[in-house]
Structure formats: C-alpha cells, structure tokens
Design a protein that fits this description.
Layout (H helix, E strand, L loop, with lengths): L12 E8 L14 E7 L6 E7 L9 E5 L6 E8 L10 E8 L6 E5 L12 E8 L6 E7 L28 E5 L6 E6 L13 E6 L5 E6 L35 E6 L5 E13 L15
Antiparallel strand pairs: 1-2, 3-15, 4-7, 5-6, 6-15, 7-14, 8-13, 8-15, 9-12, 9-14, 10-11
Length: about 290
C-alpha cells in the first residue's frame, strides 16, 4: 500500500528473519547451517481491500510524537527505518518503535494531525508487524473519536483541569495490562473518577505479535473503553457509531496511538498501516463521513 492510493499485492514471497534449528543431544552440533529463511505469505492481502493510513515509506507522510516516562535513561523512539532483512512483500522501509528502561508507566507514540479521518466503510485497522527476537512483542493500540479526544477540533467531550499527578504520569490514571491476555493487572487512580462528559476514555485493544512478519487485521469491534462514568453512551455523550461491537465513531477518528508496557525492552516493527475490509464486504451502516479519504 502506498499512502493515498490502493495497492493489493500478488502472492510473492519475501524473506523475514530466521528460525533456529535444534542442535544438541547425543549427536552434538552438525556442520550444516543452523538457520533458515522464514517466508512471508504476501498473498494473504489478496482477500482484502485496503485504504492506506501510512505506508512508512520515506519521506514520512504523517509526523509522529513519542513520550517516555521519567525513569533515568528511559528511551522511546519511533522512526522509519530500512528493513534489516531487506524486503517484505516489496516494502523496504517500516516503522521501528524502540523503548527501554521505562520503569514507571511505560511509553507512548502517536500521530500529529491524524484526524478527523473516516474509516466507516471498512471493517477495522490492519498492519504488518513483527517483534525482534529478544523484544517485548505486545502493545496497546488506541483510537479516539470526538467523545474521547482531548484538544482536537470537533471534540464533544470536555477537558477538565486535573491535579498535578507528577512528572511521571502521562494521564490521570495508570493502568498495567497483561500483554498476553489483555487483562488489567493493576490500576492506580490519581484523581476522582472522570465525569460522564470527560475526555480521555480511549478505545483500546491489546495486540500480541510474533517474531515473524504477519498481517494483522483488528476489527473495530475489538476496540473497547474502560468501564468508567465517561463510557459511551451516557447522558452527556450520546453519539455512537455503527461498527458492530463498539460505540466508536469510526467516521470521525481523531487520534491513533501505541502504548508500550513498562519495564520491558521493545524493538517493534510495523508496516503498511491501513483500514481494511474483506473483498465484497459492505458496512451495515455508516454514521457520516468527514474527510472524504
């Protein structure tokens, strides 16, 4: 996929990392090669139509921001980098997210000027991804709409002043999620529960990738809010979208972000971020497009 236009690839194979072979036992190590090429099945894309969000080919099409917690020496970067294994389905550049030593709440990355963006004619978000061999392979993907996005034109929620939670707190509350199951392990509230019309209760889903390149398709229905007073719909925030399984307004997506867990070293690669739909799929209803893209 190239930003702004369609691209569905044929069934080519590309290299993606290596797979260690067993060595040991009574026979010891042998002289033959101990690694082999793991092919990528590029033809899996043939079942879908895509609408590109970011192909990550240089130069960058959408600027990104990153933030690390205040742990001494904490690192968080998101850069477009050449693929270390050469090429994946014709792509030679991907987004590399690296984080380490974030021992307090973790780290975040997101897009500047992402929305409003209309994804209501599609089933969800797709991307290719892999994690380096010795890397954390889990992250939380978040979407915001006018009911949840703070500081964006068109927001219907309200941003209230919050007490100073300290330099290490990115938001009013800190939640630790088990990356393997998506379960909340602990949550530290730094202020009173949010008001019904308060911004900030993003729609999130926990994603767990492997060490090999794979195509991930995340239906909008998998993006859910926390069970707090500003969960949509409520008496103050009544507008909901038409995507099955979620109240997210997919026609008015304002923010897209990635959150990495605390205290885990991460080297994550993401490529060809897009909206996706199965070929022939039609949305059950649309809540009104906003950007024509």
């Amino acid at each position: 996929m190239v930003a702004g236009r369609w691209r569905v690839r044929s069934g080519r194979l590309a290299r993606a990392g290596t797979l260690a072979l067993a060595c040991g036992g009574a026979f010891g190590c042998t002289a033959y090669a101990t690694t082999k090429t793991v092919p990528v099945n590029c033809s899996v894309e043939d079942a879908y139509d895509f609408k590109s969000i970011d192909s990550f080919e240089m130069p960058a099409s959408l600027p990104m921001w990153t933030t690390a917690d205040c742990t001494a020496g904490a690192l968080m970067t998101a850069t477009e980098s050449s693929l270390p294994d050469g090429s994946r389905c014709g792509s030679t550049v991907a987004l590399e997210i690296q984080a380490s030593r974030n021992a307090d709440w973790g780290s975040l990355a997101g897009y500047n000027g992402f929305g409003p963006r209309d994804g209501s004619a599609y089933e969800g978000i797709s991307f290719w991804a892999r994690g380096a061999v010795d890397s954390n392979k889990a992250f939380t993907l978040s979407l915001d709409d006018p009911n949840t996005a703070s500081g964006t034109v068109g927001s219907t929620c309200t941003t209230y002043p919050t007490p100073d939670a300290g330099a290490c707190a990115p938001t009013a509350s800190t939640t630790i999620i088990d990356p393997a199951t998506g379960m909340v392990l602990s949550s530290g509230t730094l202020m009173a529960p949010p008001l019904p019309d308060q911004c900030g209760n993003s729609y999130t889903v926990v994603v767990l990738v492997t060490g090999d390149w794979q195509l991930y398709t995340i239906p909008f229905g998998h993006f859910q809010q926390g069970a707090t007073p500003n969960r949509v719909p409520n008496a103050e925030l009544t507008a909901t979208g038409s995507a099955p399984g979620t109240t997210l307004l997919t026609s008015q997506l304002m923010l897209l972000g990635v959150r990495l867990p605390k205290a885990l070293a991460t080297d994550l690669w993401i490529d060809d971020l897009a909206f996706y739909r199965h070929k022939g799929w039609a949305p059950p209803g649309r809540d009104g497009g906003v950007d024509g893209r």
